[in-house]
Amino acid sequence: MSRDIWDPSTYARYADERSRPFVELTARIHADNPDYVVDAGCGTGELTMTLADRWPEATVEGFDSSPAMIAKARETGGRFAVADLTLWRPDRPVDVLVSNAVLQWVPAHRDLLGHWVNALVKPDGWLAVQMPGNFAAPSHVLIRELCRSATWRDRLGEFDRGSPVGDPMEYMELLTAMGTRVDAWETTYVQVLQGEDAVLTWVSGTALRPILDRLDEGERSAFKRDLKKLLDEAYPPKEYGTAFPFRRVFVVAHT
Hints:
The protein is α/β, with parallel strands linked by helices and 255 residues long. It has 11 helices and 7 strands.
């Protein structure tokens, strides 16, 4: 894309909810003394630093395609670089490779998983991946429908990412065929989001970023107003907050 579409402050609004899948994913990595650990698509780096805390003797590095995210990540004091996820190749075998909520943006991520398996130490290399699997949820369906509406179809009508992420069984079959032992599962979190326009704020940090990047400032405000009305009906706020079911797919592969 022509410019950096990611906003660290918006993405961090619901940091606790976004970090929980990372914690549950990496808990299933049973590496004892890894030498080289990589967080592919590390975002703002706070979660990468939990890997450095877990394996203090390892070289822990994170990379992301967003300069804004990496600028924020470098404030942690860790080792971070700007790199394209699809082009990155390590200069030595990787003991642990983690990718959290990133591969849904890569249409050819199934091929990329093959490159990553080949990059692992053998034996005892670990690949751990988590991807959103909520593309059939009302939030995403409403975004696609709004893009195709009479108001927005001239600007956004072709935007439809469909359902880019498979189910756990697909990744089980794919990675087992590559000679790894695989642990794959899915979880639907019923997240209780706090604050006004909670679901709109959530998707503004992720799913809406490529859409908003196509619009000027006035159009962005108008699109978000239109979407807010739809989301308020689909996810009505309650006294305790706004319940937002969110399905995620997890895969851990061990060489």
